[in-house]
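Before we proceed, please read the two lines closing this message. Tell me what the token row says about the fold.
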Amino acid sequence: MQRDIPIGLGAGLAAAILTLAPASGSGFGVLLSVLSALPITLATLCWGYRAGLAAAIAAMAVLALVTSGLDAQSPDASRFRLALQFGVSRALPAWGLAYLAVAGFGDRAGDRAPLPLGTLAIVAAVLGMAGTFFGILALGSTPEQALANLRTDLMQAVRIMMGGSKDQPIPAKDGVDPEALLQVFSVILLPLAALFTTVSNLGGLWLSARIALISGRLPRPWPDIAAELLLPTWSLGLVAVTCAISLLSGTVGFAGQLLLAALLGAFLIQGFAVLHFLTRGGAMRPLILALAYLLCVVLSWLALPLMIVLGLIETLFNLRGRFSDRSNTPSTPR
């Protein structure tokens, strides 16, 4: 047996352990679960696509075995739900992105050019949308039923947190109906999940690539992300089409909403790339970047849309190209 398969099996076991970390009940366990796809991405980048695929399959198998006997009181429920959710939303997208990032390292990779970073970001958005869509269907057989179940779960959780029973109505406060706000939030939450899944997939790929670079096993030269991450012009047309589709009703409209949010996640990443590029060589660069990231955490409702708009403007007007033509400041890949 080749070495990449055993390495992939070990990486899959690590991914499954990270996925189950929230069962410990600690906040640190939740943080670890965010990195659950990292071993799969690392295996793909460092040891090839066979190792990454073996890691993804092994992680799903371990999760299926561990959770198969946990819900004995509900034998009709899908005992493999967690494994399928992880596979569709985390494992397979992580493997696919890493495979495309190095153009199938291990299969004549030297003869194949890697995808442009902008195209890779669009692929991440599509994978983020698909993972979110199929993950949501675990809450119900249709998007409408999934939304209804999510809304019910949110309301019951808030009622319990407020010290009441799960069936007791939430009292209005200052003329605001909390249940109406929860209904609106449940509709917004799912597209936001698609957006942050795209950001998470790209962030996980970046982190894995940095680790592979430090270890000396990254099979491609490190790109100048701030300069090279440029979403193709046709992505604007894709955004326009998904805007129109999102206005439709039913499953098609719901899928359009998720894809639109996922694409905006790719433009969000491009907005940060533009900010990193335009501040190069400036004495205030560390302060500007720190302030930008802080605002995205503290005032995310304002800062994140502004970064998305910056990403859209970049695709329209090529701000980095115009700036580099007027500046002789040497750039440093970051």
